[in-house]
Amino acid sequence: MKKNIAISAFALLAASAAHGQELRFMCYQDGNECDVWADAFQTFEAENPGITVVVDVVPYQAILESLPVQLEVGEGPDLARVTDYGGLARFMLDARPFVEDADTIEARYGQSLAWARVGDNAADGIYNIVDQLTATGGFANQTLFEQAGVDMPEPGASWAEWAEASVAVQQATGVDFAMALDRTGHRFAAPAISYGAALFDESGEALVIDDGFRAFAEQFVNWHEDGTMARDVWAGAGGGTYQDAAAEFINANLVMYYSGSWQIGRFGRDIGDAFDWVATGGVCGPEACTGMPGGAGVVGFNHTEHPEAVGKLIGFVARDDVQAQVLAQTRNLPANAELQANGIDYQDVTPEVAAALTAFAASVPTFSDTAYALQGYQYNRAVFTSIPARLTQAIVGELSLDEALDRLHQDVADAIAEAR
Amino acid sequence: MTALFRTLYEGAFNIFEKPMRMLQYSLGAHRMAWVFLLPNLLIFGLFTYLPILLNIWYSTTGGDRILLGDRDWVGGDNFATLFDCGSYLDPNSCRRDLFWRAVHNTGWFVVLQVGFMILLSLIAALILNRTIPLKGFFRAVFFYPVLLSPVVVALIWKWILQRNGVLNAGMDWAGMGTVNWLLDPSWAFFWIVFVSIWANMGFYVLILLAGLQAIPGDVYEAAEMDGTPAWRRLVRITLPLLTPTLLVVMVLSLIRAVQAFDEIYVLTGGGPGSATTLLIQYIYDVGFATRPRQFGLAAAASLVMAGVLLVLTLLQLAATRKRAEEG
Amino acid sequence: MLRFLTQRRGRDRLDMTDWIAFGFLGLGVFLMLGPVLWLTLSSFKTEAALQEYPPKLLPLAPQFVEVEGFETALQRFQIVSGEHAGRELAQVRRVGLNAQMIDPANPDERLNVHINDREAVRAVQVETENYTGLFTRFNFLRYFWNSTFITVVATVLTVLFNSMAAFALAKYRFTGRNTVFLLIIATLMIPPTVTLVPLFLVVSQMGLINSPWAVIWPAIATPTGVFLLRQYMLTIPDDLLDAARMDNASEWRVYWKVVLPLSAPALAVLIIFSVMWRWNEFLWPLIVLNRSEVFTLQLALNSFQGELQTAWSSLLAMTVLTLLPITLVFAFLQKFITQGIAQSGVK
Fold first, then answer.
1. Number of domains in chain B
2. Scanning every residue of chain B, which has its alpha carbon at the shortest distance from the alpha carbon of C21?
3. Is pLDDT above 90 for C139?
4. B277 and B244 in contact (C-beta within 8 Å)?
């Protein structure tokens, strides 16, 4: 069925070429998101005769690197599933005039709608409907803790306590790594904020290197030196390259892994019965216990020839029943407040996966304002890619920590200056 | 199959024969050279030189926009930023330290990669030029990695080199202990040189082999009768006669080494730290991968690189031509 | 075979250099082919087996056994230590550090086994679903056709245009010849990665976005091709061309009927390269082709890479599939090149 999406859409297009409107939806997927949306759009097409939606599944790299270039010269799809809201904001279509019930959407998605309301975009515009809310957070290998006879820190324990416990478990069980954190500034930001980093100055510009930021950066580098953190993840790459440690966790080679909600489905599938794992809940610093929100969402573009149809589709994507049905299959967290409150009836999940999904969903409302501000910041990608580039240099000894932090500040400032 | 090919070949000839003959009558035979050049030049003009001109425009303007009209004129600012350095030998003293780290890395990479690759390719070509069984098979084996896409090359070696990869499993088994290959700056650099030789060597083996086979056999027979030792035959006869081919190999491999990117980017991501960040990766990172993009700076860096390459190539050509004239 | 080995260079014995030569070749085969075989073997592994350390050479999968009274099959384990050492048991469930196990022959008795005392029983199992999944998951044939179309058309045009230019540069004397040659060679200095954006501007102005021609046109003039062919054509004696001209042949006939056939070995090399470049091309198609009906295989292959996760098993299977055609083209032309080189050597 899925393989025929393009062909059947093609046939439909030919049949309704005279009055039909074809929308192209450029989609990337971590799991099965695009396939599930393609199914859901059949309902939309049935409800809106004359509009067809073609889903083009592309690599994430196409969304990140090709799409902005295409949009800038006036090419590109009518809609896409994206993550860089700030960077694409000026190409986005405001769906407010075309949706049936803008107020309901505002009530349901208010928090994530703010992410695209940057630059010249309208302060009440409906640009993006997040269909995969993500929350960063920790995972722990419970079986290893039991084997080592170490008590697992409770939710709300500090980073230092987790580090200490993980190292104890690592030494007792002989696994390779105690802790790991994905190689991106997005993951790094959460503990940094918890250590008191303000990130933004009074005028709302990033990136401020204050005592809080410096404190966690120093701690982080030290953890690499004493072997608490898995060196392979951050030191194993250069520049802003993303790298995760999921394989290590799946192989029971890592005690505590700070990543995010999108790993849950994969852990459920690949770990299976091999060991018990849990979501750690909030991990705290001296100042806060926050994680970072994030997520992919569907946006329309303002160069489209069929703004009304695009707006209708955005309205469809935002609907409670549609989101509930799609998220049940993609096993993602809802950005929709109604669904957050009522919960989602996930399909085919083990109790472990369900527990982790619940734990992560529950953590979302506890995230700090700074975390949301960073996620909604127009130039947050500059922050996310510069942090690993510079801190890795400090970790491998190319730069001292002070030099690295100075360079980091300068890099972000240079990038932002270029965009002005 | 052959018959079909022959028919197509004849057919294509007949289609063009008449118009080309007419052209020849009206232009004269010696101007036909331009007719033969035309399609190529048109394509180069449109798809290579026009973009290069646009790139020059980018390098003198600022902003993260692509459309030329949206960009502000900044003159030589981008170049000045790149060359803003306390000392060119110490990247830390430069405003764009990563650019200079990339320059240094690229320099080392080019020297090592080109040097070892030519040496190994030459040895392989000399061996494959001997009368050995299964010659075709061996030749194919050496060439095969060239066919792989850079991404595949990098992925294969990433598995082999990772902490718990095949290489470490083998070393562990042999009792040599394990090394975290891609986490140590020196080892990581060794492996990017190795992998890029692995992936590209077959191409040069093939060219050198063609060059070797073009050397007439009787030259050797005469030398063999004189009782000249093998190594002396190599130095006195083979290498001088191979010089034109070696020149091609040197020029091409140097250019491609300076431009090395894809397989290294996927293999190490330029790390650890910036130990394996080469020039093109710097350009790619600054101009595409990070947001907001700094096209101006990327374009300026690419022009600097192209300029240096052009000078290096001309020097190489001049040096060999001079030597050929003297010899 | 033995005679082959002993016939080397008219002598009876293998000397030192022969041993070194064979050592070098043996190492070469191991280094060059080993990784590719590894890739192929891995493409038959399950996603979980791919993540496993230390990696196994063969694709192994856990084994299951049907036991009376249980709806689903139970996983088989070998007990390596503890009180039940030596027995093979089936696992009912695992709770923390202990596993509840039973002997399939005696399903009523529950045994408690520490999880470190057991080892999963595994056997070679080829995961063909990595491959078959590709055909059901998306329109494989469509992408295959798109890739083939681009590769074939681009290669034909590359060979035609580059050999024409090389012919002009190798066999005519005219003012500006060196300048033109230099201008063409100079394009080698600019790697395609750095002109992606301006090139995209040009191509989009021409209205080629989402057409296979957006990939074909910019690719068919290659400095490497012109350079290789020109160098080769320089070795073709001018007498042959002049003889044809005496017979009143047009310049086109000289090019098509005399020079092209004589350049066959160099053309074969260029064909291999052009096929390889176009078939493997990724970054440029990624930017100019974004509708699924014009996707190439490489784009489809990379759509297994998400932002945060990569479906390795499908990616590897797809990689092996995309390698097949190019291997075949190479196997076919390799023979041709060998002949060509041999002939040019005799000359």
1. 2
2. B127
3. no
4. no
Cβ contact C104:C73 at 8 Å: no
Residue numbers of the domain that contains C288: 138-303
Ramachandran assignment for A127, one of left (phi > 0), alpha (psi -120 to 50 degrees), beta (any other): alpha
Judge whether B13 lies within some domain: yes
B241 in a domain, yes or no?
Answer: yes
Which strand (E) or helix (H) includes residue A316?
helix A307-318
Q: Please indicate if any CB of chain C lies within 8 Å of the CB of B147.
A: yes
* B3/B102 same-domain check: no
Contacts of C93 in chain A (CB under 8 A): 273
Domains of chain A: 2-133+294-362 (3.40.190.10), 135-293+366-419 (3.40.190.10)
Identify the helix (H) or strand (E) that includes residue A295: strand A293-300
Q: What is the ipTM of this complex?
A: 0.84
CA dist., res. B163 & res. B169, Å (int)? 9
Alpha carbon of B13: minimum distance to chain C alpha carbons (Å): 7
The one-letter code for the residue type at C177 is R
Residue range of the domain that includes B90: 60-326
B126 vs B324, higher pLDDT: B126
Give per-residue pLDDT as tens, B294-315.
Answer: 889 999 999 999 889 888 888 8
CATH of the domain at B145: 1.10.3720.10
- Determine which of A194-203, A274-283, A312-321 has the lowest per-residue pLDDT on average: A274-283
Judge whether C239 lies within some domain.
yes
- Asked whether residue B55 is domain-assigned, the answer is no
Q: Which residue of A has its CA nearest to C47?
A: A270
Residue that has been written with the tokens 């018959």 in this structure: B3
Give yes or no for a contact between A66 and C194, defined as CB atoms under 8 angstroms apart: no
Antiparallel, parallel or unpaired: β A79-82 and A21-27: parallel
**At residue A375, what are phi and psi to the nearest 5 degrees?**
-65, -30
How far apart are the C-alpha atoms of B210 and C339, rounded to whole Å?
Answer: 11
Cβ-Cβ contacts under 8 Å for B13 (sequence gap 6 or more): C252, C253, C256, C257
Average pLDDT estimate for B204-216: 82
Q: Which residues of A touch B67 (CB under 8 A)?
A: 72-73
Yes or no, beta carbons of A54 and C137 under 8 Å apart: no
Q: Torsions phi, psi of C103, nearest 5?
A: -90, 120
> Which whole number is the average pLDDT over A52-61?
90
Rounded CA-CA distance C298/C133 in Å is 17
pLDDT tens per residue, range C239-272: 999 999 998 889 999 999 999 998 888 888 888 8
What is the torsional sign of CA A390, A393, A394, A395? positive
Q: d(Cα A158, Cα C81) in Å, to the nearest integer?
A: 39
Q: Where are the beta strands (DSSP E) in C71-195?
A: 74-79, 88-95, 98-103, 106-114, 118-120, 122-124
Query: Residue C7: its pLDDT value, please?
Result: 41
Q: Which of C25, C198, C231 sits opposite B127 (nearest CB)?
A: C25
Show the tokens assigned to A11.
Answer: 């046939």
Q: Which residues contact A63 (CB under 8 A, 6 or more apart)?
A: A26, A28, A80, A81, A82, A83, C307
- Are B52 and C198 in contact (CB < 8 Å)? yes
Task: Find the mean pLDDT for residues B248-263.
Answer: 88
C95: domain CATH number? 2.30.30
Whole-angstrom Cα distance, residue B293 to residue A231? Answer: 29
Q: How many CB atoms lie within 10 A of CB B25?
A: 10
Q: Does residue C13 form part of some domain?
A: yes
User: Residues C98, C115: contact at Cβ < 8 Å?
Assistant: yes
Instruction: Supply the pLDDT for residue C3.
Output: 43
Q: CATH number of the domain that C185 lies in?
A: 1.10.3720.10
pLDDT at C5: 42
| Rounded-to-10 torsion of CA A213, B290, B255, C184 | -160
